[in-house]
Design a protein that fits this description.
With 423 residues, this protein is an alpha/beta fold. It is 29% helix and 24% strand. The protein has helices spanning 20-32, 46-57, 92-102, 123-131, 166-176, 194-201, 232-244, 263-271, 313-321, 342-352, 383-393, 415-420, and strands at residues 11-15, 34-40, 61-64, 69-74, 86-87, 109-112, 135-137, 147-150, 158-160, 182-186, 206-209, 212-216, 225-227, 249-256, 274-281, 286-292, 300-301, 325-329, 357-360, 363-368, 375-378, 400-403. α1 (20-32) packs parallel to α2 (46-57) and α7 packs parallel to α9. It starts with 10 loop residues before the first strand and ends with a helix. It binds shikimate-3-phosphate.
Length: 423
């Protein structure tokens, strides 16, 4: 498809779609808790609908009343053996977190996803779950889906994480809630903490001391009302577009600003962006963000900040192509095992439009500023690469065509309509 163009900046205001990570977890926690969970502002995009479908297949009543999603939870004990292979679609969060739930169930199950998800590594989750007594096998005994899970009883463990991953941490936490005794997780770097926050919100106990998390098994959780804030990972595309385009004046309403997710705000501030927080909603960890055009300079990004902006690195790389000087991204090797290899895809596609990006083993070196020009680019079936390329297209007068744009429906079905309303 031909991508949207603009002659000026982004102006007006927008409420970005609901947070994907919190939407997934609201269904999962609703399902394993007792009583009704009402989810306000649930993200009705393909990934989160995969989570809904998986829990329906496990016998949980999930109902969309047109405004809210209602989950009738009956606790871990009442999940039912699925009749067929569970389908996580394109969603790594669905597949990995659900493994932590399935591992402690008395029944056998199988779960897989689409071609992209079935190429993504699962040993990182199966390894710790096996240490807890889980019985999980990938295809032909390997680590890729379909994964077969045999019903098992789990015991608590102490586990030192070897990668910084909220998905791995969360899978262990779901298993820990079903295990005998205490589980302690020591994180490599602090990653998004929505699972820990929701254990508390649903009435559970969890102790978090810096990077050490302790939780006991056998806790009874109770259904809640959840209000999902806007997704900073979706807001990211507008943060960068409004900063780079001339004469922007944009307000993004009720964006989630949980500090484990706001690495992009820190990096853009460091690069010289003009982004203010107003109307803080402490209860839901959200704020309105006001963005004005600004000139950027290159920066270095690595270490503990990486998990706080991992999904935003493709759009940060685009920002860096327009910044004065060199930007170095390191310690981001996890980008290679996302929906696609996001290091290679970002460098390849943006270089087609005139950027100067070197892909490295653990990140990118971006030499800026480089004017961009037209061309034909590809999303690689990855929603975030697709949206990043649409923002790149706004930076040139020439035509940019995007192949495989439908990937954007994974997290943001209204992306093009929303963007059109601001240009
Ligand atoms: C997510 C964790 C991150 C992130 C993904 C969502 C989550 O993955 O990239 O989009 O909701 O827990 P990793 O935990 O593998 O880094």
């Amino acid at each position: 498809m031909k991508l949207l163009k603009t002659k000026a900046g982004l102006t007006g205001e927008l409420t970005v779609p609901a947070d994907k990570s919190i939407s997934h977890r609201s269904i999962m926690f609703g399902a394993i808790s007792h009583g009704k969970t009402t989810v306000h502002n649930f993200l009705r995009a393909e990934d989160c609908l995969s989570t809904v479908a998986v829990f329906k297949a496990l016998g949980v009543t999930v109902h969309d009343d047109g405004t809210d999603i209602i989950v009738e939870g009956k606790g871990f004990d009442q999940l039912q053996a699925p009749n067929n292979m569970l389908d996580a679609g394109n969603s790594g969060t669905t597949l990995r977190l659900v493994l932590g739930i399935l591992a402690g169930q008395p029944f056998n199950s199988k779960i897989a996803g689409d071609a992209s998800l079935n190429r993504r590594p699962m040993e990182r989750v199966m390894g710790p779950l096996r240490k807890m007594g889980g019985n999980l096998q990938g295809k032909t005994g390997g680590e890729f889906p379909p994964i077969e899970v045999q019903g098992s009883e789990l015991s608590g463990i102490t586990y030192e994480m070897t990668i910084a991953s909220a998905q791995v941490k969360s899978a262990i936490l779901f298993a820990a809630l079903q295990a005998d005794g205490l589980t302690t997780i020591i994180e490599k770097e602090k990653s998004r903490n929505h699972t820990e926050e929701m254990i508390k919100q649903f009435g559970g106990e969890i102790l978090v001391e810096d990077k050490t998390i302790t939780v006991s098994g056998g806790q009874k959780l109770t259904g809640q009302e959840v209000t999902v804030p806007g997704d900073i990972s979706s807001a990211a595309f507008y943060l960068v577009a409004a900063t780079l385009l001339p004469e922007s004046d944009l307000r993004l309403n009720h964006v989630g600003v949980n500090p484990t997710r706001t690495g992009i705000l820190d990096v853009l501030a460091e690069m010289g962006a003009d982004i203010q927080h107003v109307a803080l909603d402490k209860k839901n960890q959200a704020a309105d963000l006001l963005i004005k055009t600004a000139a950027l300079k290159g920066t270095e990004i690595g270490g503990e900040i990486i998990p706080r902006l991992i999904d935003e690195l493709p759009i940060i790389a685009l920002a860096a192509t327009q910044a004065e000087g060199t930007t170095v991204i390191r310690d981001a090797q996890e980008l290679k095992v996302k929906e696609t290899n996001r290091i290679d895809a970002t460098a390849l596609e943006l270089n087609k439009l005139g950027a100067n990006i070197e892909a490295t083993d653990d990140g990118m070196i971006i030499h800026g500023p480089t004017p961009l020009h037209g061309g034909v680019v590809d999303s690689h079936g990855d929603h975030r690469i697709g949206m990043m390329l649409q923002i790149a297209a706004l930076l040139t007068d020439e035509t940019v065509e995007l192949n495989n744009p439908e990937a954007i429906n994974i997290s943001y079905p209204d992306f093009f309509t929303d963007l059109s309303s601001l240009i």
